[in-house]
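2024-03-11 09:14:02 INFO worker-7 job=invfold-0412 stage=load source=structure_tokens
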């Protein structure tokens, strides 16, 4: 085997394999990179202008490497011819999915390695020359040993060097994370051949990553480090979410708390945002995988400790929904509730394990009519996700997906924010004057509110138009956007929502994305996660 890599194959064209190989190919014009997948539609999408995943900046990178838009020779290919790509490669990434097992030993907790195993078998069947095999997928500690057994049994005449090189990118920021990684971890055995394989892989990254950020450690540490990193990140969010419950009960404010605690350099400020629960394809799966590993090693105290991270996350989703129900007089039946955001975080169209799936499930169990808007997630995806977890008939009867926020919120009794999309921010609304008593405003009945000219002054920036003369609760716009306010294309128009929602205009912010005071100045009542009600 030559010490320099010239041909890379990546098995699995998903959220990890696709962006990672695009960045590798862009930065290594001399290396041919072929990403393969079993799924024909997925590969067809990767070959088209409509990539199968939404990721800021991804298309630019793909265009350079796949299409040679900057005048260079293309070196990034997407294909379903897995055998050919394996045969030609000297380094193969395994980037397939490792979901939680749904049946058999460890069901609901252990990682399902069936896809990793089938990729390994495929490699063993096809390979005729020595290859470096790189685990990219997050795998339980010890998986490299299982791969070795498969290769030894099926392809004894070919030499495989097995490396662990976990990927730490987060969705929504994948390109930035790949271009400027905190570290590149390469795990290998310590014999000379393995070390030289690790060096060959390090050279691929060194094309754009400073050498001091490329860390080589032992194979088992590398496998466990990826799992540990995800579990500790999830644990931070469960910690802050558990504290958000205390904040709501005491009047402490979770954002002030996160800020104050995060200033301690030993703790740090990242991953401390309270939410209605973490989602995504990794955190829950990886924590449960660690729980299973601990149980398998007869370490029940360790297993229980990590299990509580997932328990708090379930509790948080449930707690947020209960708060909505309670604030709406314990009855949601036939009330229209607008849900803003369905993706598990902003800047992605991915919905796997999104808190929205559980929260909306509970709302429709209470017989609410749920109107959903997400800037990136398609209607079919939303309905498929909900029907997979909740009775399909109830989903069909109770859920409508809208293409814009204004329609979703029209006539709604409440707005529930579940994803922190910038679109939902309230920075286009002027800060209310400090002397405007928002508490008193809330205490007023609707008619008084609409006649309350003290907040209609021009320096508060809000025009309040007289409400209807009779006292019937008709839906009539009382708030108009002042001409001076510019709405950024990326922001939804809260003025219009105020004008078309039912009163009282309830907003439940599961992400602390809106400013309760600004919304209050438009007549909204906001309940935010980790803050006491009706600010
Ligand atoms: C702690 C807080 O650090 C400090 O901010 C607060 O004001 C008081 O409590 P202290 O108890 O003096 O300070 O020491 P600290 O360095 O935090 O260590 C506490 C314990 O944790 C020690 O037993 C220490 O050995 C242990 N520790 C600390 C670890 O086991 N591992 C670590 O990585 C750090
Ligand atoms: C995560 C890890 O960050 C990444 O390193 C790993 O490679 C894959 O798993 P990802 O799931 O894409 O990445 O996104 P992340 O930004 O970590 O968010 C996960 C979930 O936690 C999201 O639902 C997010 O909204 C939530 N979250 C994140 C919070 O609730 N609060 C925070 O402070 C941060
Ligand atoms: P991740 O988030 O880890 O990238 P994804 O589910 O987005 O996971 O992508 C994994 C991809 O791997 C899927 O597109 C799936 O079709 C593909 N895949 C799974 N097993 C194999 C296999 N044996 N050969 C080729 N592709 C595979």
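2024-03-11 09:14:09 INFO worker-7 stage=emit residues=535
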């Amino acid at each position: 085997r030559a010490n320099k890599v010239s041909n890379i194959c990546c098995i699995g064209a998903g959220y990890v394999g696709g962006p990672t190989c695009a960045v590798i190919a862009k930065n290594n014009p001399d290396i041919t990179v072929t990403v393969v997948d079993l799924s024909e539609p997925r590969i067809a999408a990767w070959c088209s202008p409509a990539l199968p995943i939404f990721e800021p900046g991804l298309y630019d990178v793909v265009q350079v490497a796949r299409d040679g838009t900057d005048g260079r020779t293309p070196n990034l290919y997407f294909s379903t011819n897995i055998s050919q790509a394996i045969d030609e490669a000297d380094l193969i990434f395994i980037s397939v999915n490792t979901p939680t097992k749904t049946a058999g030993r460890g069901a609901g907790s252990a990682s399902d390695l069936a896809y990793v195993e089938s990729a390994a078998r495929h490699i063993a069947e096809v390979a005729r020359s020595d290859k470096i095999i790189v685990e990219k997928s997050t795998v339980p500690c010890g998986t490299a040993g299982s791969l070795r057994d498969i290769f030894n049994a099926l392809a004894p005449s070919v030499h495989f060097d097995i490396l662990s090189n976990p990927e730490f990118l987060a969705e929504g920021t994948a390109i930035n994370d790949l271009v400027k990684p905190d570290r590149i971890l390469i795990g290998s055995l310590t014999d000379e051949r393995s070390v030289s394989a690790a060096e060959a892989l390090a050279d691929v990254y060194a094309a754009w990553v400073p050498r001091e950020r490329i860390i080589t450690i032992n194979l088992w540490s590398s496998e466990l480090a990826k799992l540990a990193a995800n579990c500790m990140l999830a644990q931070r969010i469960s910690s802050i979410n558990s504290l958000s419950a205390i904040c709501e009960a005491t009047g402490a404010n979770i954002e002030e708390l996160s800020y104050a605690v995060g200033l301690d350099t030993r703790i740090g400020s990242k991953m401390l945002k309270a939410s209605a629960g973490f989602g995504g394809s990794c955190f829950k799966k990886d924590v449960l995988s660690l729980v299973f590993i601990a149980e398998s090693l007869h370490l029940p105290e360790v297993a229980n400790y990590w299990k509580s991270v997932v328990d708090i996350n379930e509790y948080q989703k449930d707690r947020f929904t209960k708060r909505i129900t309670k604030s709406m007089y314990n009855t949601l039946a036939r009330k229209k509730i607008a849900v803003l955001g369905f993706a598990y975080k902003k800047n992605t169209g991915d919905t796997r394990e999104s808190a929205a799936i559980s929260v909306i499930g509970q709302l429709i169990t209470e017989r609410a009519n749920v109107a959903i808007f997400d800037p990136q997630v398609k209607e079919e995806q939303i309905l498929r996700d909900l029907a997979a977890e909740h009775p399909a008939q109830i989903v069909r009867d109770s859920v409508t997906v809208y293409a814009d926020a204004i329609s979703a919120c029209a006539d709604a009794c409440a707005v529930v924010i579940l994803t922190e999309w910038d679109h939902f921010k309230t920075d286009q609304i002027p800060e209310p004057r400090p002397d405007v008593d928002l508490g008193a405003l809330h205490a007023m009945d609707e008619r008084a509110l609409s006649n309350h000219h003290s907040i209609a002054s021009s320096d508060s920036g809000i025009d309040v138009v007289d409400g209807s003369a009779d006292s019937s609760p008709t839906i009539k716009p009382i708030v108009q956007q002042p001409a001076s306010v510019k709405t950024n294309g990326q922001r939804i128009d809260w003025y219009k929502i105020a004008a078309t929602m039912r009163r009282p205009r309830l907003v439940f912010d599961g992400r602390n994305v809106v400013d309760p005071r600004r919304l209050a100045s438009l007549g909204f009542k906001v309940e935010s996660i980790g803050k006491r009600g009706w600010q």
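2024-03-11 09:14:09 INFO worker-7 stage=report msg="DSSP finds 20 helices and 16 strands in the chain."
2024-03-11 09:14:10 INFO worker-7 job finished
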